[in-house]
Amino acid sequence: MKDKSYIWISFIVLIFGIWVMPKVIKKFEKADLMTMGKAPHFELINQDEKVINNESYAGKVYVLEFFFAKCPTICPIMNMNMLKLQDAFYGNMKFGIASISIDPVNDTPAALKEHAKELGVKNPYWNMMTGEGEYIYDVAKKFNLYTGVNPEAAGGFEHSGLFALIDKEGNIRCRVDEHGNPILYYDGTDDKAVEWLKEDIKLLLDE
Q1: What are the pLDDT digits (tens) for 135-188?
Q2: Could you tell me the pTM of the whole model?
Q3: Residue 80 pLDDT more than 70?
Q4: 174 belongs to an annotated ligand binding site
Q5: What is the CA radius of gyration of the chain?
Q6: Looking at residue 95, what DSSP letter applies?
Q7: Which of 22, 47, 156, 173 could form a disulfide with 33, with the two C-beta atoms 3.0–4.6 Å apart?
Q8: 190-196 contacts at long range (C-beta below 8 A, 24 or more positions apart)
Q9: Angle at the Cα of 137 (from 187 to 130), degrees rounded to 5?
Q10: 3-state DSSP call for residue 86?
Q11: Are residues 120 and 70 in the same domain?
């Protein structure tokens, strides 16, 4: 009887090793997303007049965008999609959002605080940031995200509607397209791209 019990126990342990352990190990591996290098350094002032930089997001997965509060075109769509991300990961202190204004003259910390209140910002790590204009445009350039002053554009500025996904170690991460090429950034105005972003944030949070 003891021999039979030993055989059954050994069999169960073997099955556990084959089916369960790989899944446990997989959780601690890197997510199946491309690593595009370190996110460029930034240091700005948020809506609470606190200095915020990359280190403020250390150990967190976060999404970064360039926007401005009075934008009449794509920003309202981007705002709604950021709110969807906030709601999807509400209560998770490992998730944050970095919104950098390209209109620092009007988007003072006080103005951004009011804008955050109007939007319904609840995540304590959703920083709406401002600073010197040329510095902000230089940071955007380093991210390879288009921003610029254009008096003829609606609102007086132009900018990309893309979201950057950054992991806990400060790396820009992304998925690949159907041809195996990295998408680099996620379209913040596209519902499907935002759903991809949700999925990929979950992967990075589990790393």
Answers
A1: 999 999 999 999 999 999 999 999 999 999 999 999 999 999 999 999 999 999
A2: 0.85
A3: yes
A4: no
A5: 21
A6: E
A7: 173
A8: 191/81, 194/81, 194/84, 194/85
A9: 90
A10: helix
A11: yes
**Domain check: are 13 and 51 in the same one?**
no
Cα angle 58-106-139, degrees, rounded to a multiple of 5: 40
| Residue 115 marked in a binding site | no
Nearest to 198 by CA among 87, 112, 119: 87
Which residues, other chains included, contact 155 with Cβ-Cβ below 8 Å and sequence gap of 6+? 68, 70, 71, 72, 73, 103
Cβ–Cβ under 8 Å, residues 106 and 134: no
End-to-end CA distance of the chain: 45
- Identify whether residues 81 and 121 lie together within a single domain: yes
CATH of the domain at 164: 3.40.30.10
Do 18 and 85 belong to one domain? no
Return the closest-CA partner of residue 205 out of 121, 101, 125, 127: 125
Question: Residue 97 is encoded by which pair of tokens?
Answer: 């959002």
* Pairing, β 61-67 against β 126-129: unpaired
Q: How many domains does the chain have?
A: 2
Among 181, 163, 203, CA closest to 67: 163
CB 174 within 8 A of CB 200: yes
52-80 b/e (C-beta count within 10 Å ≥ 16 → b): bebebbeebbbbbbbbbbebeebbebbbe
Residue 78 sits in which domain range? 31-205
